[in-house]
Amino acid sequence: MQSKGQRMEDIMHRIEQSGHDKIKLAVTDMDGVLRGKMVSLEKLRGIADKGFGFCDVVFGWDINDAVYDN
Fold this sequence. Notes:
Layout: H1 4-18, E1 22-28, E2 34-40, H2 41-50
């Protein structure tokens, strides 16, 4: 079984081999809309090591970016 670090290295290697220099990190909101941000591979390596923040309001926005009540 691979460690977390080994899995991340495999993922990074595959992305680098694809020729892409950015990746989109995203989640789906309650309506199924993909919300995320583009990050460079350098930034992705830092995220893999240290983690990152993601605004939790994306889970409470409707499809028109209005916050759901309650």
